Amino acid sequence: ANHLYGKGSYDAAIQQYIKTIGKLEPSHVIRKFLDSQRIFNLTDYLQALHEKELADKHHTTLLLNCYTKLKNVAKLDEFIMTDKNLNFDLETAIKVCRQAGYHPHALYLAKKFSQHDWYLKIQLEDVKNH
Question: How confident is the model over 74-85, as pLDDT tens digits?
Fold first, then answer.
């Protein structure tokens, strides 16, 4: 994977790095792809980290920020608005969605997981429904 990365074969490298999940420290891969501005590859890696349930709240924040930076609403919807098990930190996801202006997503999470305080806060402060 490092060899492929060094040659500039980022797509192939990220596929190899994904195979190392659980063996290689994620921060090593994340730092490489953050530094090189390879946000698409970084997104692939972070998605795989979540699918394998090895992501922490920092990984969730980074993945959601990647989605919002890429304006990839379809992937954001898929990640947040699914019936799959919650494999991310709920409060982190709500905060990132709010900060990025994705209030419907933040509201959806707050409502789905009965976070009444968050739901009201978003309605009053962000959506201005009062």
Answer: 999 988 887 666
